[in-house]
Amino acid sequence: MPSTTVKPARRRDTGHAPDARARVARIEALFALPFADLLHRAQTVHRERFDPNAVQLSTLLSVKTGGCPEDCAYCPQSARHRTGVADEPVLPLDAVLAAARAARAAGATRFCMGAAWRGPKERDLAPVLEMVRAVKALGLETCATLGLLRDGQAEQLKAAGLDYYNHNLDTAPDYYGEIISTRTFADRLETLERVRQAGLRVCCGGIVGMGESRAQRAALIAALAALDPPPESVPINMLVQVEGTPLAGAPGLDWSEFVRTVAVARIALPTSYVRLSAGRQEMPEPVQALCFLAGANSIFYGEKLLTTGNPEAAADRALLDKLGMRALGGAEALRPD
Question: 173: exposed, middle or buried (C-beta count within 10 Å: 0-12, 13-18, 19+)?
Answer without folding.
Answer: buried
